[in-house]
Design goal:
5-stranded antiparallel sheet
């Protein structure tokens, strides 16, 4: 079936360079790549020292080693891309060769945090596989412009680090994974094999395992197409699924077409459901609160599935936005977006004209917020309700809530969590991903604020937080979306376990869109088991980036951002306590945020009903 050429030096040619140089929509991206490459030209190749390598094992810290590792990949990408964009500029090609030799000399392409697997196997992690993908593709794309000895060294290293162990020491655990590892590791090895392998029998042996791993990856998704790991892992894992799928489709003249699936189309449409306004996303699980969009990936998916929205060009991810400096999406933001640049420019002009009247007098960030239309979705498999509402003034108001369970990939103990945004600004927030350390993925995971239920907008019952595990889950009583009202009602007592003493914890979200601005009402019902004498203390916890302040009258709390959000409650039943908190974000930086706790004033009551009303003001 392997009849075509998935990628080659000659496929770009002068026409591609001319089109890229003339593309107005891509000019900012090209300028960013050029600026980064020029910056890297005057800096020395960083060194992955022995002390950095040992640090994770000694302290559990990942970032010191990974910063240097990813800086080396950024140099590689920048010099390779500029060698493609401006082939007449010799310094880029010279620097690229030095970067390639340096990476070939690395003791391992794996991250130290990923080297704790089975000792009988040569380790292959996400980044080892990605590095093999990158080097093989650069070798093919640059072709005769690189010396033959460098091509041979790349082949030797990819063979030794990927192909040989994959074929002789497998299967690897990630081949059966139902999450991003399957797509990234297997997809990268498959891509490298398509680029470098001349032996047809060996190639088919690799690809048969790759295709099986892709099936396992898809098994991790339900028919709703939602990524329980969060949007950033959709962009990552599903992105690599698309990269290998496109290469296979090209290499087999369409005989192997991994896009021919209703589920894959639903997965492809997940992106447009996640954004709440501008670059802000529903960031359940280990996801950042904001994200740029990979325009190459989005453009290709739009070609495969016209129902996939082609995002506004202003929402593209910057060249340096991917802190892991992954080659595959970086080069495809040029190759694939160039193919649809004219369509994107047309969409940009059309959208800009549509929004110009409502956006008049507003900031760039506020104008960008309205680039996503009014829509509501209920994703049954993950039990997520997502809703965007564009008001008559052009502002976008968003709400999302989740049921689910506490054994999801990249799980947080967050059954019943919700977020509220206005123009992409989070008022009731999800902390998203924290700093990845040994503890973050170890036994202490749920003591960390952003992972445990105590760092989410969910109740605390006595001293009981939510527990982990697949049986710590919600039961959906009602889920409905309409033009005027979105509803998600859950029973979530199972998330808390026996020590909470709950017979019932019912939680009902009503997102009412009948008025000028939407209003959220949350009603909780607490019922304790008969043997639990006196019930338990109840704390209704909400998490916010802004400091909550008491309103002018009792029973109101205000969150003031660019918009004003009030929270109304029964002051006779609840006492508010605001506490400033801090933790470390995904990049190792300290961040400040707040818990707004409402303590029930009649502690020990066996049956409690609560109502909190969240209202944006014009």
């Amino acid at each position: 079936m392997l009849n075509g050429e998935p990628l080659s030096e000659g496929q770009l040619g002068e026409a591609w360079h001319d089109k890229l140089r003339q593309s107005e929509v891509q000019r900012p991206l090209v300028e960013e790549i050029r600026a980064e490459a020029q910056r890297q030209l005057v800096s020395e190749e960083p060194e992955l020292s022995e002390s950095l390598f040992r640090m994770y094992g000694e302290t559990g810290e990942r970032l010191p080693y990974e910063r240097v590792y990813f800086q080396k990949r950024r140099r590689l990408n920048s010099f390779a891309l500029m060698s493609l964009i401006e082939p007449e500029e010799a310094p880029y090609l010279e620097a690229l060769q030095a970067a390639l030799w340096s990476i070939c000399e690395e003791r391992t392409w794996c991250l130290p945090a990923h080297l704790g697997g089975a000792e009988q196997q040569t380790p292959i992690d996400l980044f080892a596989a990605e590095t093999g993908f990158a080097l093989s593709e650069i070798s093919v794309l640059l072709g005769s412009r690189l010396p033959e000895e460098l091509h041979l060294r790349i082949r030797e290293e990819v063979e030794k680090r990927l192909f040989q162990p994959f074929l002789t020491e497998g299967p690897y655990f990630w081949e059966n994974a139902e999450h991003n590892w399957a797509a990234v590791c297997a997809g990268s090895i498959g891509a490298a094999a398509l680029h470098l392998m001349d032996d047809r029998e060996r190639l088919e042996a690799v690809l048969s395992r790759v295709l099986a791993a892709m099936d396992c990856f898809l098994d991790g998704y339900g028919e709703d197409g939602a990524c329980a790991e969060g949007y950033s892992y959709w962009q990552y894992g599903f992105g690599f699924y698309v990269y290998i799928a496109q290469l296979l489709k090209a290499a087999t003249d369409g005989a192997i077409d991994l896009f021919r699936s209703a589920k894959v189309q639903e997965i492809a449409m997940f992106q447009q459901k996640c954004f709440t306004g501008g670059r802000s996303i529903v960031n359940f699980s280990d996801a950042p609160s904001e994200s740029g969009i990979f325009m190459g990936l989005s453009s290709y998916l739009h070609q495969e599935f016209p129902a996939v929205a082609l995002p506004h060009a202003s929402l593209r991810d910057s060249y340096t936005g991917d802190h892991c400096a992954r080659w595959a999406p970086a080069v495809r933001n040029l190759l694939w977006w160039a193919e649809s640049a004219n369509a994107t420019a047309t969409a940009t002009r059309t959208t800009a004209a549509t929004n110009s009247e409502s956006a008049e007098g507003r900031s760039d960030s506020e104008s960008a917020a309205a680039l996503w239309p009014t829509e509501s979705f209920y994703l049954e498999n993950v039990q997520w309700l997502l809703s965007r509402y564009v008001a008559t003034d052009g502002a976008t108001y968003s709400f999302a809530a989740k049921g689910g369970h506490n054994a999801e990939p990249h799980n947080h103990n967050d059954v019943g969590q919700f977020v509220m945004h206005a123009d992409g600004e989070a008022y009731l927030a999800d902390l998203g991903s924290g700093e990845y350390t040994a503890d973050y993925f170890g036994p202490q995971r749920y003591t960390i604020w952003c992972n445990g239920s105590h760092g989410h907008s969910v109740p605390i019952i006595g001293s009981a937080r939510q527990r982990e595990g697949a049986d710590a889950r919600a039961v959906v009583v009602q889920a409905a979306t309409s033009a005027e009202l979105d509803v998600l009602e859950l029973e979530m007592q199972a998330a808390y376990g026996e020590e909470a003493g709950l017979a019932l914890l019912g939680r009902r979200f009503e997102w009412n869109k009948k008025g000028a601005l939407p209003v959220l009402t949350i009603r909780n019902r607490y019922r304790f088991r008969e043997e639990v004498v006196g019930g338990r203390e109840i704390i209704e916890r909400f998490v916010a980036w802004q400091m909550p302040e008491a309103g002018e009258a009792g029973g109101v709390v205000v969150l003031q951002g660019r918009k004003r959000l009030t929270i109304a409650f029964d002051a006779k039943q609840w006492r508010q306590v605001v506490t400033q908190r801090s933790d470390m974000d995904h990049f190792g930086r300290e961040r400040q945020w707040y818990t707004l706790d409402f303590h029930h004033l009649e502690a020990g009551t066996a049956a409690v009903d609560s109502e909190f009303v969240f209202r944006f003001e014009p």
